[in-house]
Specification:
By secondary structure, the protein is α/β, with parallel strands linked by helices. The chain has two domains: 94 residues, Alpha/Beta hydrolase fold, catalytic domain (Rossmann fold, 3-Layer(aba) Sandwich), CATH 3.40.50.1820; 37 residues, no CATH class. Helices cover 43% and strands 12% of the residues. It contains six helices and three strands. A three-stranded parallel beta sheet has the order 1-2-3, with helices on both faces. The protein starts with 12 loop residues before the first strand and ends with a helix.
Length: 131
């Protein structure tokens, strides 16, 4: 999804707590913070091994150019990938989209908190998209 070009076979995306930029996720997740000095080395290593810059991935930009409908499920209190990033992605998107807010502070575990609500939202979104 980082290139903006998705296969014609991809018809819908459901994302749980997506990130906007990789750098922010790494910087917020690294403990102790002193280890952040190694992040530029990770960037160079990724470039050397895989021929792309990891920290230049911009999911918001890819979503803005994609025509694939998407549903974002995100915990409002998420500290690893802030909820505001999902809202920004939704505003920038030209595709059919929705953001489902889970009232929790835990990253990527909204399903444990609101299983019934998430199941219902995914079912509703899929039915509406493929009607």
């Amino acid at each position: 999804m980082t290139t903006g070009d998705l296969s014609d076979r991809v018809k819908l995306i459901v994302a749980d707590s997506p990130f906007v930029h990789v750098w922010g996720v790494f910087a917020r997740s690294v403990k102790p913070k002193a280890l952040c000095v190694f992040l530029p080395g990770i960037e160079l290593w990724c470039r050397y091994l895989h021929r792309f810059f990891l920290f230049r991935i911009n999911v918001a930009q890819a979503v803005a150019t994609s025509k694939v409908p998407f549903l974002i499920i995100h915990s409002v209190g998420d500290k690893v990938t802030p909820y505001a990033g999902s809202e920004r992605m939704a505003v920038q998107s030209k595709a059919i989209h929705e953001v489902y807010a889970v009232h929790s502070d835990v990253h990527a575990e909204g399903y444990k908190t609101d299983k019934a609500g998430i199941d219902a939202k995914i079912t509703e979104f899929v039915k509406a998209t493929f009607k």
